């Protein structure tokens, strides 16, 4: 994968890149949206990886000096906490073939973007929900929203869908209603999301990261599964990403 991503935590910490290489479309002649720009690493890579795509970077921040300026790239300041802004950003972009959701990582925001993003995506398009481990009950962002109680999130719902699809089971009304218990998706959302999904591929890092996200060191205390600075290297809720393919084929 591109050296442009060498400095991204997608590479040195999460180890997502080989997985993405398997699931990204070979080419895109429509639109790409990435929620979450940060320093613009991923936007630089998208410019190179999809030379025919028009690219939107959506972030709560205004345009930053280090973000790449390019004729095929536009930026949109928005807040994932406001569903109407998510809908608006998606509506402004015709022909969306790829959405990468790498924004706040708050479970509620992940669900808002998934619900509206999958709807806006073209038939046959690809939706990447990056860092979905923040919706795992062991993660602090999950605990901020739900405490210690079991809760409906994008992770629980998409894992359920993957399980149903893999085992060839239908979404019965009873399963749908069970999945609809929660604040993020109602029964209609569950029904329409399930109907839209062709496949779901899940990645969870099973090896040590290349280097530490906090201090950059590769000096690890191997028996403690910690970096020398103390960061945990193999947390239960770490380095998980999901690729969802939408049904149908592009027009
Ligand atoms: C993980 S970084 C994005 C990294 C980038 N995708 C990359 O791989 O190079 C997360 C970004 O989400 C943005 N963000 C945080 N909260 C947000 C919100 N409520 N709405 C929109 N963007 C948000 C942050 O400003 C930050 O730039």
Describe what is shown at a glance.
The chain is built from nine helices and nine strands.
Overview of this structure, please?
Strands 3-2-1-4-5-9-6 form a seven-stranded mixed sheet, with helices on both faces. It has a two-stranded antiparallel sheet with strand order 7-8. It has a single domain (3-208, 237-246), classed as Rossmann fold, CATH 3.40.50.150. The two termini are 28 Å apart. The protein has helices spanning 9-12, 17-23, 41-49, 83-91, 107-120, 140-146, 154-166, 173-179, 187-196; strands at 31-35, 54-59, 73-77, 96-101, 126-129, 197-204, 220-221, 226-227, 240-246. It has 251 residues and is of the alpha/beta class. Helix 4 (83-91) packs parallel to helix 5. The chain contains nine helices and nine strands. Bound molecules: S-adenosylmethionine. The site of S-adenosylmethionine has 18 residues, from helix 3.
Provide the CATH topology. Answer: Rossmann fold
Give the strand line-up of the largest sheet.
Answer: 3-2-1-4-5-9-6
**Would you state the CATH class?**
Alpha Beta
Total of helices: 9
Query: Mind summarizing the main beta sheet?
Result: 7 strands, mixed
Bound molecules: S-adenosylmethionine
Strand tally is 9
Mean pLDDT score: 96
Radius of gyration from CA coordinates: 18 Å
CATH homologous superfamily, by name?
Vaccinia Virus protein VP39
Write the element-wise H/E pattern from the N-terminal end onward.
HHEHEEHEHEHHHHEEEE
**Number of individual domains:** 1
Structural class: alpha/beta
CATH-level-2 architecture: 3-Layer(aba) Sandwich
Strand content: 15-25%
In the predicted model, the low-confidence regions spanning at least 5 consecutive residues are none
Shape: globular
């Amino acid at each position: 994968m591109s050296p442009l991503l060498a400095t991204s935590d997608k590479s040195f910490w999460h180890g997502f890149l080989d997985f993405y290489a398997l699931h990204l479309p070979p080419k895109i002649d429509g639109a790409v949206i990435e929620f979450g720009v940060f320093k613009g690493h991923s936007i630089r890579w998208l410019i190179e990886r999809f030379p025919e795509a028009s690219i939107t970077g959506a972030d709560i921040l205004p345009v930053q000096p280090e973000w790449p300026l390019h004729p095929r790239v536009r930026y949109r300041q928005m807040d994932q906490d406001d569903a109407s802004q998510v809908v608006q950003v998606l509506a402004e972009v015709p022909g969306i073939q790829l959405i990468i959701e790498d924004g706040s990582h708050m479970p509620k925001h992940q669900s808002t973007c998934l619900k509206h993003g999958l709807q806006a995506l073209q038939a046959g398009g690809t939706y990447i929900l990056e860092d979905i481990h923040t919706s795992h009950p062991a993660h602090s962002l999950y605990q901020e929203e739900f405490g210690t109680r079991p809760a409906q999130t994008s992770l629980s719902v998409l894992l359920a869908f993957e399980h149903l699809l893999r085992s060839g089971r239908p979404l019965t009304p009873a399963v749908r209603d069970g999945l609809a218990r929660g604040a993020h998706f109602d029964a209609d959302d569950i029904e329409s999301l399930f109907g839209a999904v062709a496949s779901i591929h899940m990645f969870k890092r099973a090896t040590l990261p290349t280097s530490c996200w906090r201090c950059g060191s590769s000096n690890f205390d191997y028996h403690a599964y910690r970096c020398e600075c103390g960061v945990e290297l193999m947390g239960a809720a770490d380095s998980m990403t999901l690729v969802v393919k939408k049904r149908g084929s592009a027009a």
